[in-house]
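pasting for the record
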Amino acid sequence: MSNPSNEVKISPSSKTIVLAARSRLIRAIRELNLFSDHPIWSSTLTLTEQILITRLFLILTSISLLIVIGYASLTVRTYEITLNKFSISDFERLEARYPNTIKVPCTQVSIPYNKFLNLSPKFHQVCSSPFIRKKWISSLYLFNATSHNILDFRTFAFSQYRSLRLLCLLARQAINDTYRTFNSSHFINRYAFSRVQFNEMVSVLADNHQRNILTNEKQTVRILSMITAQNRLLSALRTNYYIQSVPGSKTYFTYNAVYWEQNGTEKSSCDCRLRGNQCTYPAGAFYNWTLPELGEAAKNNPPPLFQIPGLMAGCIPLDSMRQSTLECLYNQSCVDAISLQPKISRPKALNASLSRFPLNSTIASLFDESLFVEYWQNQSSFENYFAACAPRSIFYSYERRFHLGKTITMSLSAFGGLVIIWQLITPAIVKIWQRIKWKKQPNQPTTDPEQSSVDLEVLNMTPNPINKVITSNVHRTIRNFNLFPPNKKNDPEEERIGIIATRLYIVLTLIGLTVLGFYTFLSTRSQTHTEKSPSLSKFEELYSIQSSKLSCPCSSLSMSYGRIMSLSPRYHSICSSDYLEDYWLSYFGRIEIDVESIQILSTDFRLSGQSFFDLLRVLCEISRETVENALRVFRSNRLVTMNSLSRSHFYETRPGLKHNRNETSELVLMAKLDR
C-alpha cells in the first residue's frame, strides 16, 4: 500500500551516521589544538590552555586578516600602464577613459599644417562668371568713352569691370600666397592631441589664417587708394580732373571733378580732390546731356534714360566700383541693358540663391570682409595628424579601490606574518590574563601543583628584575629552538639537524629582510600627486622641484595673445605735431590765387603745400591703422598649448612673438607698397 504523503523518510541507519558525523565534527572543533607541538610554548602549556589559546589564535588571526582584506580593498592605488603596441582606436578609447592622466609623446614634435589640414575657399560666383572675363570686358570698351557724361556708365564700365576682375584676382592671389605660407608652417607639440582637442586646434588655426588674410588685403586696397588720391593721379576718363589747354600755347589748366551727393533731403557737392577720390553718384544712361561748367558738379539733368541698379559713378573706377553693388548682375534685363555690343552673346545673370550675401552688399564689403569667399571648406584629418605625430608608446595611470588580484596577493602575504605573530603573542596574552584573574581571587593559593616551574615564573612576572630562572629558561629555549621538530621525539640526531636548519632559516630570513629593506629604502617609486586649481606660486614651487615630470594641463586649449601680452607702439613725433592739424592746413586755403592762372605743374608751395601735408597726415593715419589692425589681429590670434608654460619658457617665447609680429607687419606693408 502506497504512502499518501510525499515526505522522504530517512532510514535509521542513515540518521545514525549523520548524528555521528555531527557529533564527531563538534568534538573535533572543541578539541582543536594548534599548540600541541609548538616549539616555544608547548612545554609550558597545559592541554586546556592549548585549546583555549587555539581558539583565541583563530579569532585574532581571522579579525586581523579581515582588517587586511578591508584595507587592501578600500585603499586607493595608482596603477601606471605603458603600451607599446596600440592603434588610434585604442588611443581614443583610453583617452575617453583617462583624459587627465594619459600622455602620448610624439616622435615628430614639429608637424606641417598640410599634413592634417586643408583649407579651400569657395568664392563668390562673380569671380568665376563671364563678367570678369576678357570677352565681356572688351565688349564694354568704347574709343569715345570720354565724350559721354561722367555719370554715364558707358564712360567707365570698361575700367570698372577691369577693377572687379583685378579684385577677384587679388583675392585669389592673396589666399594662395598666404596658404602656401600656412602650409609651410609647423605645429609644435610634445604630446598628441585628442580628437576633441584636435578639432578645437584646427578651428583656431583656420580662424587665425582667415583673419590675417582679410586684415592684410583690406589694408592693401586702402593704401592703393591713398597713393592714387594723394599723388593726384589723373584718370584718363576725366572722372576726377578736367584738363584744359590754352589754344596756341603750351599752358594747361586742371579743374577738380565735382559730384552731387545726397545727404538726406539735401544735396551737396563733393570735390574729388578734397575727398580723396571718394565721391560717388548713381550711374545711368545719359543720352541727352550738356557739358558741365568747369569746377561745377556733373549734371544729371535731363534724367538718364534708365538707371543702373547698384552701379555708382565716381572719381576713380576702382573706388566707385568698390562702392557699387552687384544688383544689376542678378537681373537679366539689366545685364542686357548694359551690354554695349549686340553681336556678342550676353552673359547669363547671377543666381541670387547661390550666395550668402545680401543683394545690396557693396563690392567693398565683399572684398574687405570675406575676399569674395562664400565659405571655407576645412578638410582636417585626425588620422593623418596622429600618423604624422607617430607616437611609439602610451602612458596612462588610473586609481582603483578594489582589485581582486592585488587583494588576494596582499592577504596571502600578510597571512604568514599574522600567523607567526599571533602564535608568539596569543599564549603570552592568555598567561597574562590568567595572572590578572588569579590576583583578583583573594583565596587563590600561592602555588598550583599542576603548574610547572616555568608557569610559576611567567605568572610571577613583576616589575622586579628578571631572576636567574627566567634567564636560564630563555637561554635554554633559544638554544633548543626548533622550527623543524623530528617525527621521532627521542632522536637526538634529527633534533640537532632541525635546530641547525632553524638557525639557518632565521639567518637567511634576516638577510632577505635586510636586503628587502635596503631595496625599499633606496628604490625610487613614482607617485602621482594632483593639485586642484593651483595658484601661480604653487605651480612655480612644484616646477622648481619636478620640472621634467610636472604636468599642468590647461583648462582651455587655446588663449588669445591679448590676454598674455601687451604691445604698444610709439610713433614719430611728426604724426602728433601741429603740422597735421586743421588750423595749420587751413593756412593754404586762405591764400588768394587766381585759379585761371594756375598751371597743371606749379612750383608754388602755397599750392602744393597742402597736398604735401595732406599726404603726410594720410601716411600717419595709414601707419596707425596698419599697426592697430596688426595688433588687433595679433591680440585675437590664439596660442595653442596643452600644458601651462613655465615662467622661463614664457619669457623665452615672448620676444620671439614680438619679433615675428614686427617683422611680419613690416614685410607685409612693404609688399603692399611695392604692388
